[in-house]
Amino acid sequence: MKVVQQKFAEVDGQVVTAYTMINDNGMEITTIDYGCIITKILAPDKNGNLENIVLGFDTIEEYQQYSPFFGAIVGRHAGRIANAEFTLDGTTYQLAKNNNNNHLHGGLKGFDKVIWDTKVKEASDLLSLEFSYVSKDGEEGYPGNLHIKAIYTLNNQNELQISYEGTSDQKTVVNITNHSYFNLSGNLKTDILEHKLTLKSDCFLELREDLIPTGEILSVDETAFDFRSGRKIKDGVESTNHQNVLAGKGYDHPFVLAENQNQEITLYDEVSGRGLVIETNQPAVVLYTGTQLEDHFSIRGVQSRKYLGLCLETQGFPDSLNHPHFPSAVLEKDEVYQSVTTYKFIK
Predict the structure, then answer these.
(1) Measured in whole angstroms, how far is the alpha carbon of residue 313 from the centre of its chain?
(2) Active site members
């Protein structure tokens, strides 16, 4: 196992470094310290061929001009917050408005657009990249100085674990996720409509037209949102359910997980034979099927378009700050925020 480092770019006079973790099976994961972005994951198909299974770019300029959060860590609060504001202990905090009138994925300059400090840790059976960042009091409107770590660990079982740890010097809100777009076909040979997804989830959050949760939690029974026995992504595209239609003919929905850390999320592509099993300690996963991907740029020579990739964002509920019956995203002073998700790549 080894980690290879090389210069990726410069941003405002600071060097952006790319780190490639390579395990004994030849699997590779490349990450840059700008936004902790996963730029590439080379995983084997059923014949052992290693190909890239995530959407990403080779230059920093493309990330800055075109990227809809490809591969990045998003925070301080992932997902949308209605009217870009929330109230905590009687104080209303106004956040950056970067999604019409709402706040999305941490704001105008969230965790995805800053350079993180990095420590490389190598052992005989695993590799780790420990990224750290201090989000200062008032950044993008959030209270408290938040010290956050994101740790990416690769082992020889072809498992990537992403864990987060954070503490704040005053009461604040935290909800962090990784925003990788997966496409198991390899090197973007096809879209993701034939991918089969299995979710241990009995219900999902109803969305308004602007994709903010209404507060209602709906049953998946007899809908295209029932992934309990597995179904193809194209079912949501073809569905006439209003919730599928408003998401751009697909999905952009938080699913409430019925189990944790027990193979609760499985994605499979029959043609390549690649599979991805995700386990997390988070209460929800947001399934986003790339319905808003634009077509005015290319991704390593492939024209960007709807359904070219899908996200499985393990996290707390979006807009939970405005829905008291949702699990809380509040982090008390000196309390430790902890989140962990494991991605196992199988064939």
Answers:
(1) 4
(2) 179, 313
- Read off the pLDDT band of 335 (50, 70, 90): very high
Cα–Cα dist 149/59, whole Å? 25
- Cα gap 79→254, rounded to integer Å: 9
User: 124 falls in which pLDDT band (50, 70, 90)?
Assistant: confident
> What does the alpha-carbon distance between residue 313 and residue 43 come to, in Å, rounded to a whole number?
20
195 Cβ neighbours under 8 A, 6+ residues apart? 183, 184, 232, 233, 267, 268, 269, 310
Q: Please, which residues bridge with residue 146 across strands?
A: 135, 168
Q: What is the mean pLDDT of residues 64-79?
A: 97
Q: Give the pTM.
A: 0.98
First to last CA, the chain: 21
CATH assignment of 2-346, given 3.40.50.620, 1.20.140.160, 2.70.98.10, 3.30.70.1530?
2.70.98.10
What CA–CA distance (Å, rounded) separates 1 from 23?
4
- Neighbour tally for 96: CB within 10 Å: 17
Q: Helices H, strands E: what count in the chain?
A: 3, 30
Residue 134 has pLDDT above 90, yes or no: yes
Reported as a pLDDT band with limits 50, 70 and 90, residue 3 is very high
C-alpha R_g of the chain: 19
Domain ranges of the chain: 2-346
HSE on the CB side for 192, CA within 13 Å?
33
